[in-house]
Each structure stands twice: as structure tokens, then as C-alpha cells.
Design brief:
This protein is mainly alpha-helical. The protein is built from 5 helices and 3 strands, in the order ααβααββα. It has 3 domains: 36 residues; 65 residues, Winged helix-like DNA-binding domain superfamily/Winged helix DNA-binding domain (Arc Repressor Mutant, subunit A, Orthogonal Bundle), CATH 1.10.10.10; 63 residues, no CATH class.
Amino acid sequence: MDFTKEEILRRARFIFNNGRLVHERLLKSQMEYLAGNRQAAAFSDLSPAQHRCLLAVRRRGEITITELAEYLGVSPPSASAMVDRLVEKGVLVRRQSTKDRRKVIVALTDEAARVVDGVEKHLLGAFVELVEMVGPETSAKWCEVLERIGSFLDPGSSGRGKADATGRRKKT
């Protein structure tokens, strides 16, 4: 089924606007969580880019500056400067790689890991509310669509332990 350019634009605008609504709801929920958590004070004034950096480090456990820069789509010096600011805030640590002493590894501090875990748990709760609001049929369709989108946006990870539209893990 072919779409006209107008129909493609209409659908793209619809996805954009509704995606923004979900994003804004999650950001508001995250800010409320951080504001009510004294241990998360260092997180309250982080930029979106710094939050993204923390999530990248969280996802990888440990990461080199070069890998982080590639993941974030910035130059290694920019990633290094961001890491420096996050080290000063006490949310990241730098250390020598035990495998290659020429490399510097970046990781979350224990406290930052606890805060990020709390944020993720809180945001998961916000998604649970959304799933309950839209119901099982719509949420199953939502999962199918996002699975398809994920296969285009993150093709390198497709099939490696990702959940399918029903929430079950795929075989790897």
C-alpha cells in the first residue's frame, strides 16, 4: 500500500506529536522523582545530554571514552569533557582498564547506580500506568510497532535477548 506524501507527512506529524506527549510525561515523572529524592540531588541539574550519558554508561556497565563518544555521537574530547563534569558531580568515576592500561574506563558510582535504578523503576511504573490505560490489545500493537522501529534504529542488537511484542524474550 503506497502512501501519498501528504499522508506520510500527516502520519509523521501524528507520531511526532504523540511521541512528544509520552516523552514529556516521562520527563515530568522523572523530575518529580528526582525532586523527592534527597540522594538524587546531583541529578537535579543535569542536562538531557548528561542524562543520556549516564544511561549509556548504565547500559554498558563500563565504557571507554571513545566508545561513549561514538554512542553519543560526539567527539572524544566532548565526551571526555562531559565525563569530567559528571566525575566532579560524583556520579561517574574514571579508572584505568585492567585489560589495557592505555584505556580509561568510565563507570557509574555506586550511589549514582542506585539513583538510576530508582529512576528506571519509577519510569517503568509510569509505563505500567500507560499500558493499563490503553489496554492489552492496544499495548500489544504498541509493542509490535516499537519492535519494528527498534529493528531499524538499533539493527545491531536485534534478536539478542530483546523482548517480542508479547513481552517474551526472543531466542538468541
